[in-house]
Design a protein that fits this description.
Radius of gyration: 21 Å
Structural class: mainly alpha
Mean pLDDT: 87
Order of helices and strands: HHHHHHHHHHHH
Distance between the termini: 34 Å
Largest sheet: none
Shape: globular
Strand content: under 5%
Low-confidence stretches: none
Helix content: 55-70%
């Protein structure tokens, strides 16, 4: 009898949780629509333009390369404003990470201010630029411009970035919602908890990128054609971060930092 009662309780609890996920999805439907359109429109360039136009997106100062640091800078600014209002240390860390990412994307203004890369950095930088993410240790290729393999890829900035976004945007909110002890810790620490219905777009962005690289795009096309997908991926990911920063800023009076959105809707 007790087993049957427990089973019914578990079933009821699962239904309640599923309903809360659905409510979150509906509550954030505008965000979800914007992000869905951003992925569709961004990757649709491969089906709307010719190969030469698409290859141009991999060049310096192309549309997606310009938009990526802009998204990151604006997101960083919103987190700075949120920090000034909340005095939350984790928000300040997020702001710094996004600002650093934006600075790295434009090589800290090297092309704007036209300054040279120091020789010590130039020797170990794959693209000989003034940034850290293109240092051989953190890049996806070595100084001979050969792709890295195996354990050497663990320190790639792209890999670490994807790992961070998937953990922060999906794993963290899901675990905190289902594990009471973790939720208690997050609430006490006032960690910024993103809605999983927004964080899931980090995964969707990666899946679309992977499908294009693995099954749709041909590496035999002219240089830059395949690589343009990398720029699109980074730009979409930066846009998702911008949307998340706007979410935290716009809901600051409704949802306290450390709380999951499902707790108040």
């Amino acid at each position: 009898m007790t087993t049957i009662t427990n089973s019914k309780s578990d079933l009821y609890l699962n239904r309640v949780r599923l309903y809360q996920y659905l409510k979150e999805f509906l509550y954030l439907r505008v965000y979800i629509l914007i992000l869905t359109l951003s992925i569709i429109l961004s990757y649709s360039v491969y089906f709307l333009f010719d190969t030469k136009t698409i290859a141009h997106f991999d060049k310096e100062n192309s549309f997606f390369e310009i938009m990526t640091p802009i998204y990151l800078f604006v997101a960083s600014l919103l987190f700075v404003i949120l920090f000034l209002k909340s005095k939350n240390f984790y928000v300040l860390i997020l702001s710094f990470v996004l600002f650093f990412g934006a600075g790295e994307e434009i090589s800290w203004g090297q092309r704007i201010f036209d300054f040279k890369t120091p020789e010590t950095l130039k020797e170990i930088n794959v693209q000989q630029e003034f940034n850290l993410h293109n240092i051989e240790l953190f890049n996806s290729i070595n100084n001979q411009h050969h792709p890295k393999k195996g354990i050497d890829r663990l320190l790639e900035i792209n890999f670490l970035f994807r790992l961070f976004t998937l953990f922060w945007g999906i794993v963290l909110p899901v675990c905190l919602y289902h594990i009471n002890s973790l939720r208690f810790v997050a609430t006490r620490m006032k960690l910024p908890i993103p809605p999983v219905s927004i964080g899931i777009f980090f995964l969707l962005n990666w899946i679309v990128f992977w499908l294009l690289h693995s099954f749709i795009l041909s590496p035999e096309n002219e240089p830059g054609y395949l690589e343009s997908a990398n720029e699109i991926f980074e730009s979409v990911a930066a846009f998702i971060l911008l949307i998340l920063s706007f979410y935290f800023f716009s809901t600051r009076k409704i949802i306290r930092l450390g709380n999951d959105i499902k707790a108040i809707i």
